[in-house]
């Protein structure tokens, strides 16, 4: 059984072993590259899957791809104006179609997940391909009296009709001031300031990403997308809904109001949110030139496994202040472990059980990594047992410790051979001298069991 913190009940929820566990994860808005802060949130369903897998519990993960309708700039990337569709803006900047933008950044997103060794979602419905379902649920909300058409033709959800609004975030309707931006705009057509658009009519300036509906030509609101897709995938109930902490309000609050009103039941079992990530003490933001992508980290010769390790070493509910120093230290750890695993023969069952119990206890990945570190220390004098422990932990936590072979010039290959010979002859002075030469040429030299191991030197930006 997995115990996990549920934002709504503000306590640990038990996810029973009924198989498979149904998980819906809010996915990316695919108009730009995701940065490390986004990736931390998107890792959350994979961590849940990892914890469940350690207890042989299966799960199904559905993650939406937002390729239309997300208007609010909640990213800190101020290049995109709030109130404008992000896809359309980026399409204008890159001079291609909105769909080109969506497919380009979706492919990049999955490449980043794959590099982080994330098990890709089982289903990835696209907003642009789920319009029929959205129209269907909006029509039903109108029929049930939870939604209405405003003077401009747009359809709004009537917030006051949903009595437990605010249960997730604590932002109840009486606390919300008029003029609060729910959808990136203050819309005169809605009856109450807390209402939000389910369907927005568009004018002739919007030439892409519009659809014909009973309410005119337009496009969906962001929140209704997740209601339509999650109900479509799972029916009236699923176990876990994940997202970044910033999605608590208004996105998840509004989604819950819509989904529960439609079905007359509490659709989501547990709401699980990943905390923010800071980089060098500051929020990731383009305006402060503080956006770091996975490929920036890889350009510093730091592996995606090191990034995954840092994420694991910090509990998902704790704010993480990531620094280049932390990433460098994690890469050094990954390299140290990688140099040792070839001696691994058996599974370290004791460690596996201990780590699994940490994972099942509110995804305590930090203690799971600490368990490995303690074991590594305790087995300092037993290389093969230590290798078993490292390989077992790496397998459980999905840390890829394989080292991709480098393409080396003849000059470098020659130096490596000379150094191996020097070591075989116990000529330590020459061996050290050759190591220094390789270091100057940008390589890090370590001595794995099979011989000299060469890697590119870690080069964080200065
Ligand atoms: Zn969502």
Automatic annotation (TrEMBL):
<dbReference type="GO" id="GO:0005524">
    <property type="term" value="F:ATP binding"/>
</dbReference>
<dbReference type="GO" id="GO:0004817">
    <property type="term" value="F:cysteine-tRNA ligase activity"/>
</dbReference>
<keyword id="KW-0067">ATP-binding</keyword>
<dbReference type="Pfam" id="PF23493">
    <property type="entry name" value="CysS_C"/>
</dbReference>
<feature type="domain" description="Cysteinyl-tRNA ligase anticodon binding">
    <location>
        <begin position="407"/>
        <end position="455"/>
    </location>
</feature>
<dbReference type="InterPro" id="IPR032678">
    <property type="entry name" value="tRNA-synt_1_cat_dom"/>
</dbReference>
<dbReference type="InterPro" id="IPR056411">
    <property type="entry name" value="CysS_C"/>
</dbReference>
<dbReference type="InterPro" id="IPR024909">
    <property type="entry name" value="Cys-tRNA/MSH_ligase"/>
</dbReference>
<dbReference type="GO" id="GO:0005829">
    <property type="term" value="C:cytosol"/>
</dbReference>
<dbReference type="InterPro" id="IPR009080">
    <property type="entry name" value="tRNAsynth_Ia_anticodon-bd"/>
</dbReference>
<dbReference type="GO" id="GO:0046872">
    <property type="term" value="F:metal ion binding"/>
</dbReference>
<keyword id="KW-0862">Zinc</keyword>
<dbReference type="Pfam" id="PF01406">
    <property type="entry name" value="tRNA-synt_1e"/>
</dbReference>
<keyword id="KW-0648">Protein biosynthesis</keyword>
<keyword id="KW-0436">Ligase</keyword>
<keyword id="KW-0479">Metal-binding</keyword>
<dbReference type="InterPro" id="IPR015803">
    <property type="entry name" value="Cys-tRNA-ligase"/>
</dbReference>
<keyword id="KW-0547">Nucleotide-binding</keyword>
<dbReference type="GO" id="GO:0006423">
    <property type="term" value="P:cysteinyl-tRNA aminoacylation"/>
</dbReference>
<feature type="domain" description="tRNA synthetases class I catalytic">
    <location>
        <begin position="18"/>
        <end position="330"/>
    </location>
</feature>
<keyword id="KW-0030">Aminoacyl-tRNA synthetase</keyword>
<dbReference type="InterPro" id="IPR014729">
    <property type="entry name" value="Rossmann-like_a/b/a_fold"/>
</dbReference>
<protein>
    <recommendedName>
        <fullName>Cysteine--tRNA ligase</fullName>
        <ecNumber>6.1.1.16</ecNumber>
    </recommendedName>
</protein>
């Amino acid at each position: 059984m997995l115990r996990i913190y549920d934002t709504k009940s503000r306590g640990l929820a038990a996810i029973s072993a009924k198989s498979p566990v149904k998980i819906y994860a809010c996915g990316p808005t695919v108009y730009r590259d995701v940065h490390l802060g986004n990736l931390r949130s998107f890792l959350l369903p994979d961590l849940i899957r990892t914890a469940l897998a350690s207890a042989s519990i299966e799960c199904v993960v559905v993650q939406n791809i937002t390729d239309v309708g997300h208007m609010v700039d909640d990213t800190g990337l101020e290049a995109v104006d709030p109130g404008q569709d992000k896809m359309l803006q980026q399409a204008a900047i890159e001079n291609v179609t909105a769909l080109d933008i969506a497919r380009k950044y979706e492919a990049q997103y999955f490449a980043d997940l794959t590099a982080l060794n994330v098990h890709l979602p089982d289903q990835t419905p696209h907003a642009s391909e789920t319009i029929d379902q959205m129209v269907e649920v909006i029509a039903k909300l109108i029929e049930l009296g939870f939604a209405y058409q405003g003077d401009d033709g747009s359809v709004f959800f009537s917030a006051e009709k949903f009595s437990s609004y605010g249960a997730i975030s604590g932002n109840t309707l009486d606390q919300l001031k008029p003029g609060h931006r729910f959808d990136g705009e203050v819309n005169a057509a809605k009856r109450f300031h807390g209402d939000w658009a389910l369907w927005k009519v568009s004018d002739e300036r919007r030439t892409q990403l519009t659809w014909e509906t009973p309410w005119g030509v337009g496009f969906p609101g962001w929140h209704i997308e997740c209601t339509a897709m999650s109900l479509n995938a799972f029916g009236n109930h699923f176990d876990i809904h994940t997202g970044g902490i910033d999605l608590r309000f208004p996105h998840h609050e509004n989604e819950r109001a819509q989904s529960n009103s439609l079905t007359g039941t509490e659709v989501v079992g547990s709401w699980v949110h990943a905390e923010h990530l800071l980089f060098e003490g500051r929020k990731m933001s383009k305006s402060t030139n503080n956006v770091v992508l996975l490929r920036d980290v890889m350009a510093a010769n730091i592996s995606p496994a090191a990034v995954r390790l840092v994420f694991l070493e910090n509990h998902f509910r704790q704010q993480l202040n990531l620094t280049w120093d932390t990433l460098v230290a994690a890469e050094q750890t990954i390299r140290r472990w990688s140099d040792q695993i070839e001696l691994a023969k058996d599974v370290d069952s004791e460690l596996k059980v201990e780590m699994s119990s940490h994972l099942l206890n509110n995804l305590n990945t930090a203690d799971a990594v600490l368990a490995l570190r303690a074991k590594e220390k305790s087995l300092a004098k037993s290389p093969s047992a230590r290798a078993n422990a490292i390989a077992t932990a790496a397998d459980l936590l999905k840390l890829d410790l394989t080292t991709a072979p480098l393409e080396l010039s003849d000059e470098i290959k020659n130096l490596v051979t000379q150094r191996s010979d020097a070591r075989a002859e116990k000529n330590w002075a020459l061996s050290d001298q050759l190591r220094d030469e390789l270091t100057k040429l940008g390589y890090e030299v370590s001595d794995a069991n099979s011989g000299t191991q060469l890697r590119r030197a870690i080069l964080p930006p200065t």
